[in-house]
């Protein structure tokens, strides 16, 4: 094992000892005293069976036949989740093939940051993760399931499903992906049209046509943002069937991987000889694997929120210092847009997750000895799924088929993972530099302070930002407004950088999982609401964002800085349902703990 990875793992195990033991005791109590079908009253069971009379006789055998709960994020407004439309009826057939049954236990919301970016609905985005966790708990609360399949893909959906499901960690569960859409307009071409539009050089019709050519059919978006980073993480944690992450929808291989997941669930229940409960699969080593995979592939910065939240739900404590130490040791093996020109289909064709996992295992960066849902250790995930005849099989992955996309661990794109923690008198923040040119890692420039990303866009359109500058956007944290992504800032800041200006962003909000070439100090904590130092910055203050040294400083005399009063908080916005989430904002804790209201409210 790489000594740095081993040291971080030991640090997490030691720090988590009391909370992890409490969690393991919880799921053992739940296993022993679970109000499952053998203990439910006849009227309770009749209610549960009434909706699926075709499976009633099998269900009446109770413990002898597993009943699988399907928790689905299906909707047909989002391409990634539209693929799940027929999954439940198919999965019921596949369950019957092995003497089991399946029922839709419940649905969870699935919203898309791509639809809500820059608009009021985006302020519900992060807390949709907590809503999904609560919805998952409700779905599994009936006590009529011996296992579950979690059908979800995108940004907050996978973390939310896991946060809820882990509180039922005595049950075996498998994540069921749907796969990415086939490639459309290349991501760099799409980004170029966005920047032309920001400069007034492309019409709205031209921009819409480019966006539709990029997002053109069912499946996840093809850039390597939060949704596809989720799928990577499920592979390195061993929670998918091996190699399931990036197989396109509507293919025979995709169908057979889902079928295999249903069959596998029927064999890993509490009454079988290969019991694999979710809470045992998601241990400290699996969480470290998720962080290593994130860094080795240049994944989404949103997972500096999501991985800590998933870990907390399993009694595990990981902090940004752990990510920073891992990033210094883990090599970058992949170049996928926005960190390269290829999309996830190109990544899959080059070798995909089986190649990455094999390389990281060979280099000692991933924990091989984790409990996976597939029945073996993580080595099974270093093989590629294929259809041989009519049957699903796995075969060795071989070498990279395109070293502009995937490289071996001995010849990485970079010796480190490209995530940094910045600290200084402004607070503690994260920065992703894997797509930022090295000469832009340090920006020292006067601040221009905003309380909303729309104000930034207006200032850009008015020509007020034509200079070296650190854009500060505050009151964007979880307690202020739900911590929306500030993705609308990417095109104008990119344009300013292209014009030769030194530009950086400092914010207590989030940036897109697809953020790229502009240096962005994000998730600044403590946030402005409540007195965080980002609220002390004034227009014209000299700000230094230094990813080389790991510092984030307002170059203001210490006595003047200490004497300043925080900026006043704008009144909370209403409309678009935002007022209904006041409880979530009030309870949410800091970004480094995952910015979760339900976990904080539960005392986790």
Automatic annotation (TrEMBL):
GO molecular function, one term: metal ion binding
Cofactor binding, per record: Binds 1 [4Fe-4S] cluster.
Domain Dihydroxy-acid/6-phosphogluconate dehydratase C-terminal: 405-595
Annotated metabolic or biological route of this protein: Carbohydrate metabolism; Entner-Doudoroff pathway
Cofactor dependency: [4Fe-4S] cluster
Catalytic activity: 6-phospho-D-gluconate = 2-dehydro-3-deoxy-6-phospho-D-gluconate + H2O
Binding residues annotated for [4Fe-4S] cluster, in chain numbering: 154, 221
InterPro entries xrefs: 6-phosphgluc_deHydtase, Dihydro-acid_dehy_C, DiOHA_6PGluconate_deHydtase_CS, ILV_EDD_C, ILV_EDD_N, IlvD/EDD_N
Listed EC numbers: 4.2.1.12
Alphabetized UniProt keyword annotations: 4Fe-4S, Carbohydrate metabolism, Gluconate utilization, Iron, Iron-sulfur, Lyase, Metal-binding
Domain of life: Bacteria
Entry similarity comment: Belongs to the IlvD/Edd family.
Name of the featured protein: Phosphogluconate dehydratase
Organism: Sphingomonas endophytica
Gene name of the encoded protein: edd
């Amino acid at each position: 094992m790489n000594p740095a990875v081993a040291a971080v793992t030991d640090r997490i195990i030691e720090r988590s000892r009391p909370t992890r033991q409490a969690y393991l005791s919880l799921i053992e109590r739940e296993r022993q005293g679970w109000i499952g079908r053998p203990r439910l009253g006849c009227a309770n069971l009749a209610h549960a069976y009434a909706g699926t009379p075709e499976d009633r006789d099998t269900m009446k055998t109770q413990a002898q036949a597993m009943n699988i709960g399907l928790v689905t994020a299906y909707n047909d407004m989002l391409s990634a989740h539209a693929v799940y439309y027929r999954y439940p009826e198919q999965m019921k057939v596949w369950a019957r093939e092995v003497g089991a049954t399946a029922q839709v236990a419940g649905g969870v919301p699935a919203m898309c940051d791509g639809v809500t970016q820059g608009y009021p609905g985006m302020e519900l985005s992060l807390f949709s993760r907590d809503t999904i966790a609560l919805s998952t708990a409700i779905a599994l609360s009936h006590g009529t399931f011996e296992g579950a399949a979690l059908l979800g893909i995108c940004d907050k959906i996978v973390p939310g499903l896991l946060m809820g499901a882990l509180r039922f960690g005595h049950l075996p569960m498998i994540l069921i992906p749907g796969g990415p859409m086939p490639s459309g307009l290349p991501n760099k071409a799409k980004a170029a049209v966005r920047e032309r539009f920001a400069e007034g050089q492309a019409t709205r019709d031209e921009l819409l046509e480019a966006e539709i050519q990029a997002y053109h059919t069912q499946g996840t978006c093809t850039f390597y943002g939060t949704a596809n980073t989720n799928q990577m993480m499920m592979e390195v944690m061993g929670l998918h069937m091996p190699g399931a992450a990036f197989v396109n929808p509507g293919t025979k291989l995709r169908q057979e991987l889902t079928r295999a997941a249903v069959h596998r669930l029927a064999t890993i229940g509490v009454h079988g000889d290969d019991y694999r409960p979710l809470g045992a699969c998601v241990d400290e080593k699996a969480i470290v694997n998720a962080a290593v995979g994130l860094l080795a592939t240049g994944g989404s910065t949103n997972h500096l929120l999501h991985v800590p939240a998933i870990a907390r739900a399993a009694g595990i404590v990981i902090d940004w210092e752990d990510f920073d130490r891992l990033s210094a040791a883990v090599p970058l093996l992949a170049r996928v847009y926005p960190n390269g020109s290829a999309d996830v289909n190109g990544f899959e064709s080059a070798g995909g997750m089986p190649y990455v996992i094999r390389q990281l295992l060979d280099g000692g960066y991933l924990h091989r000895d984790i409990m996976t849902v597939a029945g073996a250790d993580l080595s099974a995930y270093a093989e590629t799924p294929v259809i041989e005849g009519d049957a699903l099989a796995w075969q060795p992955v071989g070498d990279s088929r395109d070293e502009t996309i995937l490289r071996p661990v001995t010849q990485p794109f970079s010796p480190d993972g490209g995530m940094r923690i910045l600290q200084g008198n402004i607070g503690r923040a994260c920065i992703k530099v894997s797509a930022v040119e090295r000469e832009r890692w340090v920006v020292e420039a006067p601040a221009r302070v905003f309380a909303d990303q729309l104000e930034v866009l207006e200032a850009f359109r008015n020509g007020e930002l034509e200079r070296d500058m650190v854009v500060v956007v505050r009151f964007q944290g979880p307690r202020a407004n739900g911590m929306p992504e500030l993705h609308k800032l990417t095109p104008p800041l990119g344009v300013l950088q292209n014009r030769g200006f030194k530009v950086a962003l400092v914010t207590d909000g989030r940036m897109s999982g697809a953020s790229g070439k502009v240096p962005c100090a994000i998730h600044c904590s403590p946030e402005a609401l409540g007195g965080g130092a980002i609220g002390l910055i004034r227009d014209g203050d000299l700000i230094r964002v230094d990813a080389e040294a790991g510092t984030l400083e307002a170059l203001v005399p210490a006595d003047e800085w200490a004497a300043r009063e925080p900026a006043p908080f704008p009144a909370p916005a209403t409309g678009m349902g935002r007022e209904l989430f006041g409880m979530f904002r009030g309870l949410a804790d800091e970004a480094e703990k995952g910015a979760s209201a339900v976990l904080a409210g539960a005392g986790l």
